[in-house]
Write a structure and sequence with these properties.
Layout (H helix, E strand, L loop, with lengths): L28 E9 L4 E2 L4 E6 L8 E4 L5 E7 L2 E8 L3 E3 L5 E5 L3 E10 L1 E8 L10 E6 L5 H4 L2 E5 L5 E7 L2 E8 L19 E3 L2 E2 L12 E3 L4 E3 L2 E2 L2 E3 L1 E8 L7 E8 L5 E4 L5 E7 L2 E11 L8 E13 L4 E9 L2 E9 L10 E7 L4 H5 L8 E3 L5 E7 L2 E9 L10 E7 L2 E2 L5 E3 L3 E8 L3 E8 L10 E6 L12 E3 L5 E7 L2 E8 L9 H7 L4 E5 L4 E7 L7
Parallel strand pairs: 1-9, 10-18, 10-19, 21-27, 28-36, 37-43
Antiparallel strand pairs: 1-2, 1-5, 3-4, 3-6, 6-8, 7-9, 10-13, 11-12, 11-14, 14-16, 14-17, 15-20, 21-24, 22-23, 22-25, 25-26, 26-27, 28-31, 29-30, 29-32, 32-35, 33-34, 33-36, 37-40, 38-39, 38-41, 41-42
């Protein structure tokens, strides 16, 4: 069963209901305190302290600069929840770098702490010890307590001496990878200058491996300078040539894209007759897509669509020449809505959206090039989604505009060829027809978020996580922000089991496995029947809690 969204849908992020009443306007509050340096507690002058409003509210940013005693003061701050950012050359905020601050009264005598930034320096060389320039070197932090920062990355490029420098790092463990420009040729050690086969430099993880799982973390300490040298590896590469057939006859611009499981992606504009030539490809399986633009010559609005090309390209140990790739025609999805009670409804108030299956990795890489992913609905309840690229999808239903009246509606079922596909999703490879059933009896969860002392927590983020059997269903996740009294409301929910979580600071994708592993057992578990209303008190998860 499907959740009936009634706000604008962001298909790669959890849907958030945006019809909560705005908090009453109050006079601004004063926020003041000091910035100290660890471990000696010395005041930090000339540090920029900035408050950035969260939860989409039009608050901030507010900022001030510390004086010689490390003191700062910000006046007239509106009520709300803020992220505190402290900036000073050569220093970073302690911990995971995120400080969440709720302002519902004057905040005085705050103390924020910073520490000396860490630094990774090093050199990238080839197997002969010669420097390699223009290599991108990235350090990705691994050991942060919160999923939002677990994959924070920092990068640098090598100079003419092969040297790189990655500053402003917090203490922790990092994975370091050196990625050369795609197709950068490397001579074979025993065949310099003879180029019998093309050999290219490839992404190399510290201390010198192509496999990320075999890499070793680099441990950096606050204020330290950690040397990391990498000998970049090389691999034989191959050439693939051929032509694409079956593209629209009126296409003005056509581009071919290749994607692979080892994150080596290539693209180029097709030549006359649909010709293409890729060089420097590593061994592996590549999926091909064509991005086609039409309409410019007719003076109309340009139309861009993505077309799947078949077959896949398997590069093993030799060049591939004169390969023929065939464009697979896009499909259409037809459908019709009805209410579960058979009552009449103004279907023009409804829109339908396609959400790609999060497990369909190849489709995710092509996300921004897809055809129309939404459609309005006609008065008789019918709709059509055109130019759908073959792949796995879920159907999501939303309102055509803001409407408080639709907050309790949800999509009860999606039927394809007599089978319920709302939970499983469906495969599109040719035209299909869907039947969509909507109900006005969505369940609701209302409640209060409290801290360890049992006091209400204003402006906290609240999200429901569906049971494990529905975790891939992005449309079943709802999010709300507590008001100044700590209250929240989640409505229009499908029947089922949910875990309600409250966090001071939510910036993660709640469908991310790391988020679910960290938090799914730490909320309030609730079973919902159709039309039920449940009240709950949820304890907030602090932004400083590991």
């Amino acid at each position: 069963m499907k959740h009936f969204l009634i706000a604008s849908i962001l298909l790669t992020v959890i849907p958030a209901l945006a019809f909560q009443a705005a908090p009453p306007q109050t006079a601004g509050f004063a926020v003041s305190g000091k910035v100290l340096q660890d471990p000696d507690g010395q005041p930090v002058k000339k540090a920029n302290v900035t408050l950035i409003g969260q939860s989409g509210r039009q608050t901030g940013p507010y900022s001030a600069v510390t004086d010689a005693e490390g003191q700062f003061a910000i006046a007239n701050v509106k009520a709300g929840r803020y992220i505190v950012e402290i900036e000073h050359a050569g220093m970073v905020q302690n911990g995971n770098g995120r400080i969440s601050l709720s302002v519902v009264q004057n905040k005085n005598d705050l103390v924020f702490r910073v520490q000396r930034a860490a630094l990774i320096i090093g050199k990238i060389t080839d197997s002969d010890g010669d420097p390699v320039r223009n290599v991108s070197v990235t350090a990705t932090r691994l050991d942060s307590g919160r999923p939002a920062n677990r994959y924070a990355s920092f990068g640098s490029g090598t100079n003419d001496l092969g040297e790189f420098r990655i500053p402003d790092l917090r203490a922790g463990k990092y994975t370091v990878v050196a990625t050369p420009p795609q197709g950068l040729q490397a001579p074979e050690p025993d065949e310099k200058g003879k180029a019998r086969e093309q050999v290219v430099y490839v992404a190399t993880y510290y201390p010198g491996t192509l496999d990320k799982e075999e890499s070793l973390p680099v441990d950096v300490q606050a204020g330290s300078e950690t040397p990391v040298d990498i000998t970049i590896l090389s691999s034989k590469s191959y050439r693939v040539t051929g032509e694409v057939v079956g593209l629209p006859s009126k296409s003005l611009i056509s581009t071919i894209l290749l994607t692979s499981g080892h994150d080596m992606n290539s693209q180029q504009r097709l030549e006359e007759g649909g010709r293409f030539e890729f060089t420097g490809l590593l061994p592996g399986t590549y999926h091909a897509r064509a991005v086609v633009v039409t309409g410019l010559r007719e003076g109309g609005t340009p139309d861009m669509r993505l077309m799947q090309l078949e077959p896949t390209i398997d590069v093993v140990n030799a060049d591939i020449t004169e390969m023929h790739l065939h464009a697979v025609p896009a499909a259409s999805i037809y459908g019709r809505f009805r209410m579960d009670t058979g009552q009449k409804f103004d279907w023009t108030r409804v829109m339908v959206f396609l959400r790609r299956d999060v497990s369909d990795r190849d489709m995710q890489m092509m996300e921004s090039f897809g055809g129309p992913s939404f459609s309005t609905v006609k008065p008789d309840g019918t709709f059509e989604l055109k130019d759908v690229v073959p792949g796995n999808y879920y159907l999501v239903v939303g309102a055509a505009g803001s409407s408080e009246e639709l907050r309790d509606y949800y999509t009860k079922s999606v039927i394809l060829d007599g089978q319920e596909v709302g939970d499983s999703g469906f495969r599109v490879s040719a035209d299909i027809s869907l039947q969509v059933v909507v109900s006005a009896k969505g369940a609701a969860i209302e409640g209060t978020v409290v801290d360890e002392a049992g006091k209400p927590v204003p402006y906290a983020s609240v999200v429901d996580v569906p049971g494990s059997e529905h975790r891939s269903r992005g449309d079943l996740y709802q999010q709300d922000t507590t008001d100044e009294h700590g209250h929240f409301s989640l409505r229009g929910l499908n029947p089922g089991t949910y875990t309600v979580l409250a966090l001071e600071d939510l910036h993660e994708d709640v469908q991310n496995p790391d988020f679910l592993n960290s938090y799914s057992s730490r909320g309030e578990k609730i079973d919902l029947d159709e039309g039920s209303h449940t009240s709950v008190v949820v304890k907030v998860i602090s932004s400083t809690t590991p």
